[in-house]
């Protein structure tokens, strides 16, 4: 930068556009890592070992990469496990997988920060959206820091990738690669295909659409040729699903403790979650009415995605523990946390943040809001928004926006520490490898069975040759 160059110069803006996301990536990763207890970091979770690692040993990295599991492809999780198994010793595999997953989720958060420029007006709102992958209250319970649930974070990226302004081939191609990887990892990205029509004439967006279509099509073909096992229990009723949405992803946006939610419902009734959901629905309707076009699309995408994740997952994975409309007091006390609750709540929180952005814009606290004649871009009559009435409306929007921002920030802060995650009690991976060393010393050509979370039915067979090689270091 030369002397006398203006602070708003293109060079300065270019440098900041690179440095800020990188710094934010590191900050989000650190925040996500600090939320995990040492026990959680050192525990390998479910498919990470029993499926991804085990099949890698049997089929090789290339052979396992596009191998179906439960009717779907899981390309990015398999890549993460493959990288983790090759860059560190076998006894540190669980910690390495946890670290890589935290980094990937943080990359999603940093990408959200970049992609919301030009759509979300408030810097604070953009920051809160970027922090969601790391600070979603229910995250550490099951979906954070394991490869098996990375697909939720890649899916969270999709609406931002499809709604961001794209004015260059480089951005379009990079996002095309990202949406392709997301599609090859999560079939539910097809829920966002209607967003293709937003600015479809912009040719720079075509690589993004193409990546999404290829990834989604590969998933559809996989599930048609390798269908998942049919449900063994009856599907829940619509009432179960709707009430479950209020109880799980919606209430889970405010607390990580589903048993606490169940206790409150058992004592006071379901209205304690239904009434706030109704209020949120009214705010959403107002936001869709008053927001700018980009804000409306983003808000609608958040609401639609939260519903699609919850209702789709519940329909495909029926469980007697999801029959919420038929719960008695005892069953409410046993209210359990489901992984799709955390995934859905990311979009619920995202909707609150977008609502805050709309309110702050209308309140004149960020770019947009009011012009000399009254409210910008319709929604309220210009002639009515004058004098003291106009000032009152401005302050009402400001208060609502500030309260929503504070509410999300407070939810993040109060739920930062989670010490009852489903992996908190292990079994701890390094201890399992250490125990296997003596068995492998007796039969070096065999495989060692190492227990992993969440229960005794989950284990992975590790070749003793790998364990012996690590023990000899």
Automatic annotation (TrEMBL):
The chain crosses the membrane at residues 15-34, 93-116, 123-141, 147-166, 173-198, 204-225, 237-258, 270-290, 297-316, 336-360, 392-414. Keywords: Membrane, Transmembrane, Transmembrane helix. This is Uncharacterized protein.
